[in-house]
Amino acid sequence: MASIIGFMKRAKEWIAAAHISDQQKENAPLKRQLEAEDVLQDGVQADDSASQNGVHNPGSVCSRGSRVSRSTVESRVSVTRVRQEAEHAALLERAAALKRRQQLEQEEAELQRLELEENALKKQRKKWRGIEIARIKAKKEELEMETALAESSAKLKVLNEYERSEDGASSHGRRSRNRGSLRHDVTRVSPPQPDVTTPQAPPQMLQTPPMALQDISSHSNISRDGDILKVMQKQNVITELLVKQQKQSQLPTKDIPVFRGDALQYKSFIRAFEHSIEQKTDNDQDKLGYKEAKRLLHKHYGDELRIASAYIDKALQWPQIKSEDGKALNAYAMFLVGCRNTMEDIESLEEMDNPTNLRTVVSKLPYKMKERWRAEAYNIKERRDRRAKFTDLVSYIERQAKIATDPSSATSQTAVLPPLERTTRKDPS
């Protein structure tokens, strides 16, 4: 685009210079014509003076008359020829200038065409950009609609299961009641008296006591009560699930943060992604291919050493904390607490326990707080028989930040430190 604009600027300057040269060339024949007319005028004046001399010398009139007439005619013819040649030369120059002007106009038209094409290309790009934005917006709306449909399908599934269990329980209760009524009628009906035409029943059926029927009825009642209890337990579980899902639906939607390649934000982004997408569905199609994207992100940004190095680099770039600056100390403590919480599930947290990295973190603290940490680290080594770790340092800085920002404590930094560390030494930095 810049090269086209430069070319157009140079072409316009060249066209202007060509117009000036054409005007000069068009004026050249006119100037020559004026000079020729001046020469002819001088010749006519010379002839007039010669004729006047002839009048004064009558003796020479006869001898010079013929010569004067011939010279006058020749001079007039030559003047006419010179004028015609001058006009012809002027026409030729005008024709040449017209051709050059037409060429310049063609070049100018070509430049205008290039400008129009460039403007049309810009408009087309703008139109394409608008179409792409509309397409992305439509995809977002489609994703929101699919999410809403998935949630609605899950709710309908739970409700259908609840209805089926309720229908099963009611039908089972009706069947149990019918069986119980039939058994009750059987116990009330006396056995028929045998006659001549009725075949006698087997002896064991006639000898069955009424207590056996009562035992069977009581056993069926116990099994029926157990089935009803199981159905009620299932109904309670389904009700709890419905209440839980209703509460979750009333919560505000949790937006997944945009990951921009910062290693410090990788863990929080992955956790938000797992909570918002992975835990809500087991179908890879519903996850919209995020499984592969997650694998690539872990490959490029999930390296444990890289995350630890990012925290160390940020700690190195952290500004020096001045004494009595509770806000700066609190911000530093929050950063370190986030580092500790993020790296709890990372094996490379041991990298933060490196003495060099610990010294880097401690170097940003005020002088008196550094002295206090040396005493704290020695106490840990003496009492617990181990050297201080990154978690110990974070807990120490977090506690000092709470003391420094406590409204009931003194505003001076000496209130943060014990009396043993309140020395008059100055910070060498």
Automatic annotation (TrEMBL):
Keyword Coiled coil: yes
Tagged with keyword Coiled coil: yes
Keyword annotations: Coiled coil
Ranges annotated as biased composition (Basic residues): 172-181
Coiled-coil regions, chain positions: 81-153
Source taxon at top rank: Eukaryota
Annotated stretches, region: Disordered: 47-68, 162-202, 405-429
Compositional bias of kind Polar residues: 406-415
Biased composition (Low complexity): 59-68
Name recorded for this polypeptide: Uncharacterized protein
Record organism: Aldrovandia affinis
Taxonomy of the source species: Eukaryota, Metazoa, Chordata, Craniata, Vertebrata
